[in-house]
Design brief:
The protein is mainly alpha-helical. The chain has one domain. It has 4 helices and 2 strands. Strands 1-2 form a two-stranded antiparallel sheet.
Length: 87
């Protein structure tokens, strides 16, 4: 008889709160990109439609090819400096 897969998603060895398991992938991408999970991502994870829209926007911006990647990165850093964003 086959066993059911019952493992819960974890983040840093701790299980994600119930209902947030589908967002573990987003957490991993954010951790890889900026070194930690930004607070806005943690907040939007509680609103599935908003989280999905934010993910589509981020993926769309990364996929855009009108401007080279180094220039995009430079622009992101400059905007973050202007508005005081720590990321």
């Amino acid at each position: 008889m086959a066993r059911a897969f019952t493992s819960r998603a974890t983040w840093n060895g701790q299980p994600l709160p119930m209902g947030l398991e589908p967002y573990g992938l987003g957490y991993r991408f954010a951790k890889r990109k900026v070194g930690r999970v930004p607070e806005p991502l943690k907040i939007t994870a509680h609103h599935p439609r908003l989280f999905r829209a934010l993910a589509h926007m981020e993926l769309g911006q990364e996929a855009a090819r009108l401007v080279r990647a180094p220039l995009k990165t430079l622009a992101q850093i400059k905007v973050a400096m202007l508005i005081g964003c720590p990321f």
